């Protein structure tokens, strides 16, 4: 796992070597083991290396076997040994044992058509100087990042936004047209960023540059399965096959020439990964958990039980409220954008703890999105079952609205949206969209969630439940993966995600809906697999998520409560974008304990911190 930067001149001009060096230095945390740059007549590549496979021989940028093309690469190609054998059968020789050398020669032989054959987490820049050809791409699910900036003279790209900000022509500016979406959902969908002019390559996408002309295209997308495409397989058979497929994905991702560990929460996803890893590894597995002093937020007792069962060498970090204040600026720097997820900071500390013991960790990301782990997936299934009766949908939705429970309120909202796509889009909002539009200054443009609507429309032929899972994988999952990449790479730690092996994802998405959710049980089939490895009472605990006691902290001036006072006194940057007078009532309600508005306050705090940082 590494980081890279590059500039391609569209007017065939020499690229500034010192600028490439400065860009490369900004991401040195991603690759603390070595650094190098390679200059060409009209381009330049820089690379920072975190050595995982072939410690001595994998330095980059790396040429192909003919020395005619070069690669700068971030990530891991898990099937590189299979790809290497294929290339060797075509009389291509290798100097190292690295996956980087396999990748550059694979691309030389197959070109862009070979990207879909890669199984791994990756982003790369492939450059061929003889015809000024450049190909940059990102892995199937978007685990590894890749950002770019274009003007009439050049295109620049990098693993992190901060490297692009070193370019003199790139000026910091907030893309105000995206603020409605950001404040509603706390992150952005699609290839946009809050930095005006800076975009990202989307998951499963490549960008090809020929003689300065740019072409952007998808090489892979989530399969558009309808009900007729579902697998004809019994639940028990599917459970066994899912176990086998997860085990094979873990086996592939345990390959490394350095120590490998596992993040371990109290939940099912990381528990399965830890259990299977422990069984497959010859040496003792290191596991890492984060906890809180507040018992209702702390899952360490369950993590400890799984650790004890598999005799892992377990490490814990306890998060204190003062650590949020002390580290929010640092975390924002590493994240480049506002901290969408409040738990970014404890995960940052957890990564630091892990790096003291290992160089690679396996995690459980992806299960909730593709196996119905969120309450909104149950809502979608309920709405789908009522699609032929608007009257029944409205009556049930209205009845649930009268109940005092939060889940009933969510179900009511999901059923009462007149348009099903609105339910998909807005049932995961953190601040009500109508309220966001009310508090944003009138001169700030509103784009009406165009990117999100495009994603929702893409899967309209699916049933609503399948449509929502696909939508979540194209939106919410990517924000979680961005968080994982930033917190781990801040410490030069490689995070791998076995459940997001793209061949496993393709198979899971073909499973019948009731194998994923039945009644109130989400991730049904995964929990059945977990029964092989974990205690049942842990498996079927109510879902709590990895949250923080934000409500309490925003009432405590020694924690985060000071920020609310700053809003009231006008001492925040957010005054430039929102009418803070319209949230005064919310601040008073929260401080007095009448209501919990902590999700809104976190979004405002993270945005304010980001603005002040840049």
Low-confidence stretches: none
The total of beta strands comes to: 19
CATH class of the largest domain equals: Alpha Beta
What's the shape?
globular
Tally of separate helices? 27
CATH topology group of the largest domain = Glutamine Phosphoribosylpyrophosphate, subunit 1, domain 1
Taking the alpha carbons of the first and last residues, their distance comes to 27 Å
Major β-sheet annotation: 6 strands, antiparallel
- Spatial sequence of strands, sheet with the most strands: 2-3-1-9-8-10
Overall CATH architecture of the largest domain: 4-Layer Sandwich
- CATH homology superfamily name of the largest domain: Aminohydrolase, N-terminal nucleophile (Ntn) domain
Mean of pLDDT: 91
What percent strand? 15-25%
Summarize the amount of helix as a percent range: 40-55%
Structural class, from helix and strand content? alpha+beta
Rg from alpha-carbon coordinates: 24 Å
Number of structural domains: 4
Describe the structure.
With 614 residues, this protein is α+β, with helices and mostly antiparallel strands. The chain has four domains: 217 residues, Aminohydrolase, N-terminal nucleophile (Ntn) domain (Glutamine Phosphoribosylpyrophosphate, subunit 1, domain 1); 209 residues, HUPs (Rossmann fold, 3-Layer(aba) Sandwich); 98 residues, no CATH class; 66 residues, no CATH class. Helices cover 42% and strands 16% of the residues. It has 27 helices and 19 strands. The strands form four sheets. Strands 2-3-1-9-8-10 form a six-stranded antiparallel sheet. The protein has a six-stranded antiparallel sheet with strand order 4-5-6-7-11-12. It has a five-stranded parallel sheet with strand order 15-14-13-16-17, sandwiched between helices. A hairpin with a 2-residue loop joins strand 11 and strand 12. Helix 6 packs across helix 22 and helix 9 packs across helix 10. The longest helix is centred in the middle third of the chain and has 19 residues. The radius of gyration is 24 Å and the shape is globular. The mean pLDDT is 91.
């Amino acid at each position: 796992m590494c980081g890279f930067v590059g500039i391609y001149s569209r007017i065939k001009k020499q690229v500034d070597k010192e600028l490439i060096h400065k860009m490369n230095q900004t991401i040195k945390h991603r690759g603390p083991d070595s650094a190098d740059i390679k200059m060409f007549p009209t381009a330049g590549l820089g690379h920072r290396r975190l050595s995982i496979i072939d410690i001595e021989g994998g330095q980059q940028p790396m040429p192909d076997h003919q020395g005619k093309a070069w690669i700068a690469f971030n990530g891991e190609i898990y099937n590189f040994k299979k790809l290497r054998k294929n290339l060797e059968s075509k009389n291509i020789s290798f100097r190292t044992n690295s996956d980087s050398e396999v990748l550059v020669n694979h691309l030389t032989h197959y070109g862009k058509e070979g990207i879909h054959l890669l199984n791994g987490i990756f982003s790369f820049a492939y450059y061929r100087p003889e015809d000024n050809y450049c190909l940059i791409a990102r892995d199937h699910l978007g685990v590894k990042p890749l950002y770019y900036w274009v003007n009439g003279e050049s295109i620049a790209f990098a693993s992190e936004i901060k490297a692009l900000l070193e370019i003199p022509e790139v000026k910091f500016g907030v893309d105000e047209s995206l603020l409605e979406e950001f404040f509603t959902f706390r992150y952005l969908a699609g290839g946009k960023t809050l930095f005006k002019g800076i975009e990202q390559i989307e998951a499963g996408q490549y960008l090809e540059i020929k003689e300065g002309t740019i072409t952007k295209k998808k090489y892979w997308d989530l399969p558009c399965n309808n009900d007729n495409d579902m697998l004809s397989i019994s639940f028990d058979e599917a459970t066994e096959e899912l176990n086998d497929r997860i085990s094979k994905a873990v086996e592939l991702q345990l390959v490394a020439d350095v120590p490998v560990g596992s993040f371990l929460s109290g939940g099912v996803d990381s528990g399965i990964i830890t259990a299977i890893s422990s069984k497959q590894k010859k040496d003792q597995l290191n596991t890492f958990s984060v906890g809180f002093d507040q018992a209702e937020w702390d899952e360490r007792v369950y993590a400890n039980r799984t650790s004890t069962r598999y005799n892992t060498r377990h490490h814990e970090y306890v998060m204190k409220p003062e650590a949020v204040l002390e580290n929010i600026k640092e975390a924002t720097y590493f994240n480049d954008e506002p901290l969408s997820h409040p738990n970014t900071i404890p995960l940052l500390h957890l990564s630091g703890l892990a790096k003291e013991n290992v160089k690679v960790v396996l995690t459980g990301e992806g299960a909730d999105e593709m196996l119905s782990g969120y309450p909104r997936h149950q809502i979608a299934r309920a709405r789908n079952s009522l699609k032929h009766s608007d009257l029944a949908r409205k009556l049930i939705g209205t009845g649930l609205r009268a109940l005092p429970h939060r889940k009933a309120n969510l179900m009511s909202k999901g059923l009462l949206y007149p348009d099903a796509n609105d339910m998909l889009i807005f049932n995961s909002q953190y601040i009500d969209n109508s309220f966001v539009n009310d508090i944003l200054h009138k001169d700030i443009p509103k784009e009406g969630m165009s990117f999100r609507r495009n994603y929702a429309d893409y899967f309209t032929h699916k049933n609503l439940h399948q449509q929502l899972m696909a939508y979540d994988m194209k939106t919410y999952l990517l924000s979680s993966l961005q968080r994982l990449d930033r917190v781990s790479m801040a410490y030069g730690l490689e995070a791998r995600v076995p459940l997001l092996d793209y061949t496993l994802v393709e198979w899971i998405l073909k499973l019948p809906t009731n194998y994923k959710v039945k009644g109130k049980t989400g991730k049904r089939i995964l929990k059945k697999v977990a029964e092989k490895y974990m205690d049942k009472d842990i498996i079927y605990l109510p879902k709590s998520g990895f949250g923080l006691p934000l409500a309490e902290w925003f009432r405590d001036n020694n924690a985060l409560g000071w920020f609310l006072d700053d809003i009231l006194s006008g001492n925040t940057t957010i005054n430039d974008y929102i009418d803070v007078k319209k949230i005064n009532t919310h601040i008073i309600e929260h401080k007095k304990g009448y209501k919990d508005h902590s999700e809104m306050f976190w979004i405002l705090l993270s945005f304010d911190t980001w603005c002040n940082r840049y």
